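Checklist before submission:
- one chain only
- standard amino acids only
- sequence pasted in full

Submission:
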Amino acid sequence: METASTAVAAPAATTLSYLPVGLFGSVMGLTGLSVAWHLAHQHFGAPEWVSQGIGAGALLAFAALAIAYGVKAFSGFQAVKAEFRHPVAGNLFGTPMISLLLLPFLLAPVSLTLARLSWVLGAAGMTTLAWLIVLRWMTVRQATAHVTPAWIVPVVGMLDVPLAVPQLQWQGMHGVMVFGLAVGLFFAIPLFTMIFSRLAMEEALPPPLQPSLLIMVAPFSVGFTAYVTTTGSFDLFAEGLYMLMLFLLVVLLGRLRHLAQCSPFRVSWWAASFPLAASAGAALRYAGHEQSLFSDAVALVLLGVATVTILIFAVQTLRGIVNGQLKALA
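Returned file contents:
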């Protein structure tokens, strides 16, 4: 069996070689926040232009990152190969695939054809990546230090496959939705256990990677939405996923409350954006079903936390780009 701890020679510096593929997590966060504000519009009567404005920002961010990462790949593909082979960073190649799976929420009202194309590319890419990563885990011996929350992205990310299917207006997609839901939920169990064990038994993650702890909420927040979307029901299992999401959020937000004082902003912090936005969206869906003052309050709090957090990330990132400091932030 091969070992993942084998050192990989660093590729020569090329144009935008420092640009991490995980920055596509910003597209995921912005898209998820746009969907959450759309749900807030439906449930609370929030202004629709907020959702539309955030959605426009998500589309611009995706276009800019696709071009920039394309330049990186064209100018030096070895840098991309090295990133993919990295035992931690390689998992974040799921972020552009998940972005493609989420963009139909924004594209469907404008162009159903573009929405379907985005979803097909995302679903095919996500399934292929999940297969490759699981094969890697079964073939290459992994070091305990490499087991991080980022491992959730490429396989549990299959939970994103069912989310936008209703917007595509395609018939006969139930089996595909169940496939994504089943793979995502099944692998969430051992991965969550491995990550929790690593966090409890090994050294803490370095400060720039601490926000990625919130990725551990995704199997429950996205799992809840994927399950409800696929089955069309708010049963006991769905409620259990939602309650687990709330419990983990309280634990992790408490764990990260002092992060801004002890670590400067890094683009890796965007890893926290989608779990927060997805949690707000799940809370708003649950509030629409539960119709109680408490569930409404929880939904509003989570929407506020996600909005403020993602706004801070966006301002810090744009400031770094304007000041020519993106490489340092990466």
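Reviewer check: The chain has a mean pLDDT of 90.
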